[in-house]
Specification:
This protein is mainly alpha-helical. It is globular. The chain has 18 helices and no strands. The longest helix has 32 residues.
Amino acid sequence: MAAGYLEILRARHAARLLTGTLVGRLPNATAAIAIVLFLRAEGGSYSLAGALAAVYGVANAVGQPLLGRLVDLYGQPRVQLPAALASALAMSAFAFTGPSALGAAYPTVALAGLLTPPLEGGLRALWSDVLDREEQVHTAYAMDAVAQEVMFTVGPLLITLFVSLWSAQGALLLLSLIGVLGALSVVVSEPSRRWRSAPREAHWLGALRSPGLLALLGALLFVGMALGSIAVAGVAYADENGGDSVYGWIMAGIGFGALLGGSVYGARQWSGEPHRRLAVLVALLTVCYFPLVLTPGPVAMTLLSVLAGVFLAPCIACAFVLVDRHAPRGTVTEAFSWLVTTFTVGTAVGTAAAGPVVEWGGIRPGFAVPAIVGALALLVVAATARVLAAPSKSALVARGSENDRNGAAEPGLGTRRQA
């Protein structure tokens, strides 16, 4: 397992790009908890903290595909670094004004989320430029998914450490600076500077004109909803079974399961069509959600949460391959950014949906939500199997014309058709 990942990391620029992207995305990964801790320290209400965190999340979901399209049009350095600087300045302004000036708090937080650079989509567009073989790119996607789980586990720990060592305001400022340094490390690298998207057809829908991509986003929306609903049901379970520490173990269990599953998934090469593999992975993910309804004691529940997370990272890694396959020519960064947005929106919708279910029905119906929406994700994958099976003609690009793997020939289709 380690050998496959070490082979990726030994490739020139690979470790730097992965590390820089993760560091650059740290402010985004910790924004919600950082905003809550800052407002609590400044005497703001939890309602205000929740509202501002939601504003940041919505703005971020809107901004990622828009900035991703600009990256495809103008290149990474000309978009990623200015966006990182602007986002950091907006969050710094919020750190200095605080909750006392609500007229400034909402727009600054919204700008910080809207202008968060699409480093995640940018990295996936660069993998095929850095790595020599397509199977290495697929392994890199799996490693990328695993690294995200590490970041979302370590990020909250870092923000609480920064708050305890300095202050909540200082933590916001430091995270903003770290984000800029991470983006800078990426955009000054040779692969980022030389990357150019393929010529694209002018179309207002951009990447969304691909039926295969739309089908994939529909499925991933439900996967995100499942994850968001577990977060709410987990709080209700913890309230009756030991408090915050139990909730922490449940969520850490999901992260550890995803880390374990993603590591194993990326350690081998997979044959067959990725859309069929995605259907199997989503089915397994859904099956592993059902035991959560049993709501046993905290130790057993933590073990079940590990099981519930095992197939999460493999699903996401397989989805990366399909995004790469279905993105129309010249839209690869935008397409990956849409995946980020869809998952973010799905998580938020799942959180909102699980709340009333838990309040009216209790903990067990709350944990039934992820199983139900997981089944809906599987239904979408099954219903759109023919669309996901092969890219449309408009999704193909000429091999070597763009730094993604859409150039792989598909049966019966030429590889030099224009979008």
